[in-house]
Amino acid sequence: MPANFPDLRLRRFRKTETMRNMLNIPFPEPSKFIWPVFVVSGTSKKIAIDAMPGQFRYSIDELLKALEPVVKFGVGGIMIFGIPESDKKSNTAQFAYSDNGLVQKAIIEIKKNFPELFIFTDVCMCAYTPHGHCGILEDDNIDNDKSIEILAQIATSHASAGADGVAPSAMMDGQIQAIRNNLNKNKFNDTILMSYSTKFASSMYGPFRDAASSAPGKGDRQGYQASYADLNTALLESKLDEAEGADILMVKPALFYLDIILRIKESSLLPLAAYNVSGEYSMLYATAKCNWGNLYAMARESIMALNRAGTDIFISYWANQLDKIITKKS
Ligand code: PBG
Ligand code: ZN
Predict the structure, then answer these.
(1) Ligand 1 atom nearest to CA at 206
(2) Tens of pLDDT along 305-316?
(3) Is residue 2, in this structure, part of any structural domain at all?
(4) pLDDT tens digits for range 75-111
(5) Residues measured by CB to lie within 5 Å of ligand 2, the ion
(6) CATH code for the domain of 127
(7) In the chain, how many domains are there?
(8) Which residue of 58, 85, 111, 114 pairs with 63 in a disulfide if CB–CB is 3.0 to 4.6 A?
């Protein structure tokens, strides 16, 4: 018994259901979730992603069907990832900012059908370049300043198709300022800019890279994504993006980085998103498949961990399964 609390017995709080309910910390509302979705061209396509049970690559018509129950349940937003066919990839990632691009068309259709759903788009080049890197590659070197010009064009093209928010994920220096300036210049002052501000070079993106066919052909992303070993630069990344004009900060991945979430939440007044990435999702599915744990109970517990650490917005593949995850008591 701790000396300062000689008479406190915590089990008193837990003894009756009424008291437990009175003290219950609720699971975050569906409105705080963003569901990441993968869009492919064509129609009637709903292609399973082997490493991510419950997630699919959708053609736009199928995505609209899949969104119906998700929107009905109250999920706040989506994050669109375009998966272009390989003949659409080029060194300058032109298809990423074409008016007839996949993401642009998806935004228009989704807005028509679900005007209230908040549409974020991922702004990057890796799915649009043959080499799979997040920037413009010249002689094995990523040209930062050329890359941020293209990223700014991609963001403005998404905004002009009707995206409510853009989320740049390339981890190029200065990308936030370049994107904000370009949005404003084109009168998209109201478009939300959610930065993937602290994005680590992580081994937890494997299932996503399969789903999006966006793995780098050669080399890795350590030249631009942050080192998970280094706390200081992880925090600096978010500070810089705040100074450049980000509206929302993000930590990605999420579950191995609760310390970073907590610190950024304490040191910034901006809203903070956590990206609960593909590997974090798949590992719970894999565990459940072996009968080593209850899927939705594990999902619930992991999301509550993000909530406790200070997450405001949950970017998570669980967003289309919240009906199974949310129980009255957490
Ligand atoms: C690419 C991008 C990645 C993710 C989102 N945008 C992967 C990467 O950096 O290779 C990962 C998402 C996930 O794993 O769920 N810019
Ligand atoms: Zn990328």
Answers:
(1) 14
(2) 999 999 999 999
(3) no
(4) 999 999 999 999 999 999 999 999 999 999 999 999 9
(5) 124, 126, 134
(6) 3.20.20.70
(7) 1
(8) 58
